[in-house]
Amino acid sequence: MKFDYEVLIIGGGPAGLSAGMSLGRMSRTALVCDDSRPRNAPSSHLNNFPTRDGIHPTEWRRMVRKDLEKYKTIRFFEGSVLSVEKTALGFVATFESGEIFHFRKVILAYGVEDKPLPVPGFQELWGKSIFHCPYCHGFEIRGSSLGLISNNELTFHMLPLVNDLASDLILFTNGKAFLGEEEKGLLKRNRVKLIEEKISGFLYEGERLKAVSLENAEVVEREAVFFHPTFPFTLKSRIGESLGCERNQFGFYKVNERGATSVEGVFACGDNVSPAHSVLLASASGATAGAGVVSALLGEEFKKNLAE
């Protein structure tokens, strides 16, 4: 069978671009599909990335795509992949352009969708005064009056990180807290205030948060807040599920150390495989999945030549 490309990479963010570079370095053919929905689009800075700390996310992606130009085996499709079906020999994918291509392997690099609180001000402040990652945004707001919006089993993973950055911290559980007495005692000993009232909105000027408003009409002054998502995560595409890829309790694809999913020939990387979400870690995950695909492709060819 003739394949149009060896590898289909669904997602043109840090994970997909880095997977493409691993494949390009070994002269494997790949089509990177980018539907222009980067998760960090609201952010003006990309941080915690050596040599590129503080760069605009759009500029970072432009630079990586420029780097990929020298790898002539890597091509781009600007748009969405509508479906992917597994065949006896590989995969057939249908694109929004109506084109249909055949591939030997697939890399799912399309990340996750953030689910905003459905209250006024959240969307306007997302990536500006409301953040998801202390490592990505905490340094710039250290010493501020901060809030953490979280109410799940990983709350106490995030809380010490945010507390260390804050001049004072409030934990907003946005409803009754799922905390035991021991956990509530920890909050008191660390001088973290607990507010269980529902959030009704955010007051702001420009990109600066001024206060969190509550349904009981109370207004709580804060300079920035971190938002811990609820589980399971929503992925940007259901292609992995349509192929039968298993997910864990947090919504992430189950992968091995090389990025291989539970479906033969399908790999996954980036934000859809781990709760540790940053450009640097997504990029590293993509490089790993790309190398895993290279190993699989060359291993198959080596065994085929040996048999012949």
TrEMBL record:
Q: Does the keyword Coiled coil apply?
A: no
InterPro entries recorded? FAD/NAD-bd_sf, FAD/NAD-binding_dom, Ferredoxin-NADP_redctase_2
Q: Where is the FAD/NAD(P)-binding domain?
A: 5-139
Its domain of life?
A: Bacteria
Q: Which UniProt keywords apply?
A: Flavoprotein, Oxidoreductase
Asked if Transport is a keyword of the record, the answer is no
Protein name as it appears in the record: NAD(P)/FAD-dependent oxidoreductase
Organism the protein comes from: Leptospira stimsonii
